Amino acid sequence: MRYTTIPTTSRDEWLELRKTRVTATDIPKIISGTEKAYRSLWSEKRGDRRFGGNRYTKFGKQQEPVIAAQVSEWFPELAPNDQLLVSVDDERFAATPDMIGQSMIGEIKTAKSPWGFIEDLPRHYFLQVQWQLLVTGAESCLVAWQGTTEVGGELRPDGDIRTGFVYPDEATFEQMRRVATEFLEFTPQEARDLSGDFYASHLLSEVLEIDRQIGKNNAANRRLQDERAGLVAEFLRQFGDEAQVVECGDLVAEVSGPKVTNRFDRKGLAREYPDLERKYVLQETKPSTVKVKSNG
């Protein structure tokens, strides 16, 4: 691996060093290519605004040492890291992988809706990992992830820790170098969209393909609906959920905006007024169904 380490003694010092550099957290926002994303990121780097985290990110930070300890047992080469690493090719490119080894790096994620396999790694995580690989020159990145569930108002780990490898992708490297350089040359006063709508087009193309598949295979519909919901959530995270029309190349996304709807809370009625709920529940007998299968 080829990189330079910039030692830091505090989080504030670490944050200060990141202000003049593009990091793995920045790259998905930069690839979105929108002026809104650029301005928001520049505001963060100037210190005008800072994401203070939410209950899920804070829980992730708490779980990170636990997951890292298990990963170190499985892969003794990897050790926890909290230092800023800088590319030897461009000192403005930096990253802080969660773990570092001699030839590979490690990244730890906790997820509200965990993905099943490394091939299903969400796009923004994939871009973050690719940036870390670019900065460090590592041969691979071991991604370790675990689900998160809520019990009695408290977040807890859900399921086993899973792992998978991500390898360098030269086409992604080339794109990231270009958009990162363009971003570093961007000034907030210029209303420019330097890197285009590649990320948005990718998300919308995936949604369109899923819409074509839904209905053709009923057994896969639930999985497809979940995948579609994840893509839409990422698109709205990038562009906002207010009513709008977003044009991305030859694709157009019409965002309706959030709507308030009313629904009948049958479980609540049954809990508070069980006798009343039973009184008005109607029973009906459905006819038998027959499924015909070939024994051949």
Automatic annotation (TrEMBL):
What is the protein named?
YqaJ viral recombinase domain-containing protein
Q: Which domain of life is it from?
A: Bacteria
**Which region is the signal sequence?**
none
- Which InterPro entries does the entry mention? NF-kappa-B_Signaling_Reg, PDDEXK-like_dom_sf, Restrct_endonuc-II-like, YqaJ_viral_recombinase
Q: Where is the YqaJ viral recombinase domain?
A: 13-139
Give the species this sequence originates from: Corynebacterium heidelbergense
